[in-house]
Amino acid sequence: MATRSVSRRDFLRIAATAGAGLAALPLLANCTPTPAEAPKAAPPTAAPAQAPAPSKPAAFDWQRFKGEKIEVTFTMGNMVDVLMKYHKEFEDLTGITVGAEQVPEQQARQKQVMEFNAGATSFDVCHYSYHVHKRLFAKNKWTVDLREYLNDPTMTPPDFDWDDFSGGAKAYATDSEGRICSIPIKIDFWMLYWNKELFEAKGVAYPKTFDEMLEAAKKLHDPAKNVVGFLARGLKNANVPVWTHLMQGWGVDPIDAKGNFYTESPEAIEAAKLYQSLLKNYSSPGVSGFNWNECQSAFALGQAAMWQDGIGFATPLEDKTKSKIFGKVGYGVFPKGPKAQHSAMFGDGIGVSSYSKKKGPAYYYCLWATNKVNQLRVLQAGAAVPPRSSALSNPDRAQGSTMPGEYFECLEGSGKILRAGLPEIIPVTEFRDIFGIALTNIIGGADPAAELKKATADFKPIYEKSEKG
């Protein structure tokens, strides 16, 4: 079994050598069977022939592709760590060798698009984010439609149970043409991590509203002790979900399902002002360069009172060897905004590259990675919220888990107030880039209304071209 991480140098090398242009996908030819010749009458016999015994339907066999080797590309994260820990289990079960890579989030997304556009991929299995790439992948049919496999008992074991996935997860995995382009592997709910020790030391209660959250950040901010009141992503592109999550507290989305823009609405401006207050006044001086991993590290070191992000980043916080705040972490349902209370929802899938020459073995890996056992493992590790209902409802879900009961309570509470964290549009990367720059400028003190107006003007032509052009 081979595992590896991709460095920035390696990524840039790949970028320099990958070709441009989209290779046309092969089409299945329409085949009309030749009419069979009418059977001739058999000569009479002394006794009627016995009917042949009905043949048994072919059974699913995990060893069907024994001896094959596949490559899997993952976006780096705690859930991936859980799966890779058990790769030998898959190899022993199937006889298939797995080569796997973990690529940092931003580079992974660029790498995937670049290779698909080149008409060839170095990977057979692709782990990708629905909220970033669903529409783009579907438009170009970059991943295999899995419906035929799911309906084939020789390709899908009877205990896989497609209906165990939640309706929302299955809808996330299905494109506008009804194709099932991947199997859901992860859902992430955004919430608020909080340091109980810091809160207790200053007698501050967990905030229930946005106003209370801002006030708590102010009271707990203590640069002299190397403690900031609030952490969230400040790095351009990565920071956009923080703002869109805050917008949900005003009951609006940046772009609705009909294509109406609210990115420079009063609600959007107020959310940007709150983002500015929290990160400019009560966060780290270098927060404009922070993605989730920098926030996670600082919070685990006890350097922040609160951190807004996905619940799937909890695993290292409950690791005694990595976390200085082990046993002191609070998991809170995100506070209520002026008009609404929501938990931003994001999701990932795992699919088979349309350019893979080993589609069957690759599909077997997708089956294994999303099976009931692995989904429960991911939940118990605090690495992500599984889309399988059986994992969430399992009465033994906390047994053997490093996660405290409060983690599961937060998961349940957040699950009741879900709302998509980003608009489902094709140019979502450009959306995040353009508005991400605006938000980084806002952290630096720029006027929120002016920055959002400029970003909206810059992005709208891109949106119009991709969605309506």
Question: Key terms for this structure?
Answer:
2 domains; alpha/beta; nine-stranded mixed β-sheet; D-Maltodextrin-Binding Protein, domain 2; 39% helix
Topology, please?
Layout (H helix, E strand, L loop, with lengths): L1 E4 L2 H10 L51 E7 L2 H8 L1 H8 L2 E7 L1 H13 L7 E5 H11 L6 H4 L16 H7 L9 E13 H6 L8 H11 L19 H9 L17 H16 L10 H9 L5 E5 L18 E4 L10 E10 L6 H11 L2 H9 L8 H5 L11 H11 L2 E3 L7 H16 L4 H20 L2
Parallel strand pairs: 1-3, 2-3, 2-4, 8-9
Antiparallel strand pairs: 4-8, 5-6, 5-7, 5-8
Gist of the model:
This protein has helices at 8-17, 78-85, 87-94, 105-117, 130-140, 147-150, 167-173, 196-201, 210-220, 240-248, 266-281, 292-300, 359-369, 372-380, 389-393, 405-415, 428-443, 448-467, and strands at 2-5, 69-75, 97-103, 125-129, 183-195, 306-310, 329-332, 343-352, 418-420. By secondary structure, it is of the alpha/beta class.
